[in-house]
Automatic annotation (TrEMBL):
<dbReference type="GO" id="GO:0046933">
    <property type="term" value="F:proton-transporting ATP synthase activity, rotational mechanism"/>
</dbReference>
<dbReference type="InterPro" id="IPR005722">
    <property type="entry name" value="ATP_synth_F1_bsu"/>
</dbReference>
<keyword id="KW-0999">Mitochondrion inner membrane</keyword>
<keyword id="KW-0809">Transit peptide</keyword>
<feature type="region of interest" description="Disordered">
    <location>
        <begin position="1"/>
        <end position="79"/>
    </location>
</feature>
<comment type="function">
    <text>Catalytic subunit beta, of the mitochondrial membrane ATP synthase complex (F(1)F(0) ATP synthase or Complex V) that produces ATP from ADP in the presence of a proton gradient across the membrane which is generated by electron transport complexes of the respiratory chain. ATP synthase complex consist of a soluble F(1) head domain - the catalytic core - and a membrane F(1) domain - the membrane proton channel. These two domains are linked by a central stalk rotating inside the F(1) region and a stationary peripheral stalk.</text>
</comment>
<dbReference type="GO" id="GO:0005524">
    <property type="term" value="F:ATP binding"/>
</dbReference>
<comment type="function">
    <text>Produces ATP from ADP in the presence of a proton gradient across the membrane.</text>
</comment>
<dbReference type="GO" id="GO:0006629">
    <property type="term" value="P:lipid metabolic process"/>
</dbReference>
<keyword id="KW-0496">Mitochondrion</keyword>
<dbReference type="GO" id="GO:0043532">
    <property type="term" value="F:angiostatin binding"/>
</dbReference>
<comment type="subunit">
    <text>F-type ATPases have 2 components, CF(1) - the catalytic core - and CF(0) - the membrane proton channel. CF(1) and CF(0) have multiple subunits.</text>
</comment>
<dbReference type="InterPro" id="IPR036121">
    <property type="entry name" value="ATPase_F1/V1/A1_a/bsu_N_sf"/>
</dbReference>
<keyword id="KW-0547">Nucleotide-binding</keyword>
<keyword id="KW-0066">ATP synthesis</keyword>
<dbReference type="Pfam" id="PF22919">
    <property type="entry name" value="ATP-synt_VA_C"/>
</dbReference>
<keyword id="KW-0406">Ion transport</keyword>
């Protein structure tokens, strides 16, 4: 017989006073039966609150959304007066069991541990027995003791949102961690929310013009789409991310949110200081263009599993309340899945393939479905993706791929040629590269560029062995145009001006299409290939060629 708050293993038969019942990961709560063998009927809890049926209690899918959203929240997300109070009965690493005499908090509610110098928030994950909840800690549990008081906040984790978050760094529970004082906003939002209804979504397919030639031409981003960013160390991921933040702010007046999920603290620190140097974050006035949310790899799994939702909540405010086109960067989306796997194991769930959580697809889908275009604005997400052991069939990246609209692949071979951004024009893809969406001219030019680059790639072995002289005149022309196109795909970035010495360029889409179309047509066969390197629109290449001719004259 089991009548307390002790943990129950998944799929164990738990015997209540009303007879045995099959449970899935947690005990029943508040069940009282009649005579032995009669069906178990839910009765009111001692605190006057009715309890749910066992499947509702137990199936604490960690990422299941909480209903509704109220931005006009209290000035602080502290616990309300009269909230139920519990006490800690067990601490197992990042998992804390809390017992309540009455008023059992619902799944996903935030609890706060009392009597600590630093704030510790626990999120309810499971209900155990009649009066105990199993929670996941959002910070370290060192120093916790049994019997310590815990207060139910009466709501999920709430974080500050609004323009005041721009230029600031916060953690998973919305606390500023940049040592620049509190975030002075009157608006707070719960990190768990429903995805927008179908009627709220925009069905129009529209390109988010980034001003980066290679991206806009060959693998355009859809507004409200999800882009996978693949690249190793030192090929320019950070600079590309900063340029996207800068260009979206200038071209669309939009804001960006950067969520650092389970990556190195040093990288987060470097990114912050590089953003200050490049002007993306301005410490002197309120012109910053990005909000930062960090839950780095030294954080407990609960924080890493939730920090992406915190960043998404900040982005949702700008989309839904200010009608912005928001860029949401998640670095790294694999760590979100990895943290979910750790949490699942701590909660005693049966693992699925390769040890991942059984709710992998649900966790990922719940978050990704909130990233979309509505009638008010859009959230376009760029997600850096780590592929474990380069195995694309691993469940974590494979689940992510199902949600992507475009992929931007950064290549070390292209970076070694000195061509930046080092985007691979043949590996990068986009779902909206369709003549019905981007238009026939854009589609034809993009495919023409890819064809000539592919032809050049297939000729490189012959050139390496026999040299250029052995090629036919047609192949020589293909190679010459391909090399010009390859160099014209490079572009000076505004955020990298201090490193390159080149004035940064933001190129409109029509200018990009026109330039590549003219190169393909042979209109610039007479210009040297150096003229196409590190320029903006095609007119700059012509001007650079004239300048080079004068220097050599």
């Amino acid at each position: 017989m089991h009548r307390g708050g002790a943990p129950i293993a998944p799929w164990r038969v738990q015997v209540h006073r009303g007879g045995p019942r099959l449970h899935r990961g947690g005990g029943g709560a508040g069940y009282r039966g009649g005579s032995r063998g009669s069906p178990v009927v839910p009765q009111p809890h001692r605190g006057g609150r009715s309890c749910r049926s066992p499947p509702d209690l137990d199936s604490s899918l960690l990422s299941s959304p909480a209903p509704g959203r109220d931005y006009a929240a209290p000035a602080a997300p502290a616990a309300k007066a009269g909230s139920s109070t519990g006490r800690i009965v067990a601490v197992i690493g990042a998992v804390v069991d809390v017992q309540f005499d009455e008023g059992l908090p619902p799944i996903l509610n935030a609890l706060e541990v009392q009597g600590r110098e630093t704030r510790l928030v626990l999120e309810v994950a499971q209900h155990l027995g009649e009066n105990t909840v199993r929670t996941i800690a959002m910070d370290g549990t060192e120093g916790l003791v049994r019997g310590q008081k815990v207060l139910d906040s009466g709501a999920p984790i709430r974080i500050p949102v609004g323009p005041e978050t721009l230029g600031r760094i916060m953690n998973v529970i919305g606390e500023p961690i940049d040592e620049r004082g509190p975030i002075t906003t009157k608006q707070f939002a719960a990190i768990h929310a429903e995805a927008p209804e179908f009627v709220e979504m925009s069905v129009e397919q529209e390109i988010l013009v980034t001003g980066i030639k290679v991206v806009d031409l060959l693998a355009p981003y859809a507004k409200g789409g999800k882009i996978g960013l693949f690249g190793g160390a030192g090929v320019g991921k950070t600079v590309l991310i900063m340029e996207l933040i800068n260009n979206v702010a200038k071209a669309h007046g939009g804001y960006s949110v950067f969520a650092g999920v389970g990556e190195r603290t040093r990288e987060g620190n470097d990114l912050y200081h590089e953003m200050i140097e490049s002007g993306v974050i301005n410490l002197k006035d309120a012109t910053s263009k990005v909000a930062l949310v960090y839950g780095q790899m030294n954080e407990p799994p609960g924080a890493r599993a939730r920090v992406a939702l915190t960043g998404l909540t900040v982005a949702e405010y700008f989309r839904d309340q200010e009608g912005q086109d928001v860029l949401l960067f998640i670095d790294n989306i694999f760590r979100f899945t990895q943290a979910g796997s750790e949490v699942s194991a701590l909660l005693g769930r049966i693992p699925s393939a390769v040890g991942y959580q059984p709710t992998l697809a649900t966790d990922m889908g719940t978050m990704q479905e909130r990233i979309t275009t509505t009638r008010k604005g859009s959230i376009t997400s760029v997600q850096a993706i780590y592929v474990p052991a380069d195995d694309l069939t691993d469940p974590a990246p494979a689940t992510t791929f199902a949600h992507l609209d475009a992929t931007t692949v950064l290549s070390r071979a292209i970076a070694e040629l000195g061509i930046y951004p080092a985007v691979d024009p043949l590996d990068s893809t986009s779902r909206i590269m369709d003549p019905n969406i981007v238009g026939p001219e854009h589609y034809d030019v993009a495919r023409g560029v890819q064809k000539i680059l592919q032809d050049y790639k297939s000729l490189q072995d012959i050139i390496a062995i026999l040299g250029m002289d052995e090629l036919s005149e047609e192949d020589k022309l293909t190679v010459a145009r391909a090399r010009k196109i390859q160099r014209f795909l490079s572009q000076p970035f505004q955020v990298a001006e201090v490193f390159t010495g080149h004035m940064g360029k933001l190129v409109p889409l029509q200018e990009t299409i026109k330039g590549f179309k003219q190169i393909l047509a042979g209109e610039y066969d007479h210009l040297p290939e150096q003229a196409f390197y590190m320029v903006g629109p095609i007119e700059e290449a012509v001007a650079k060629a004239e300048k080079l001719a004068e220097e050599h004259a």
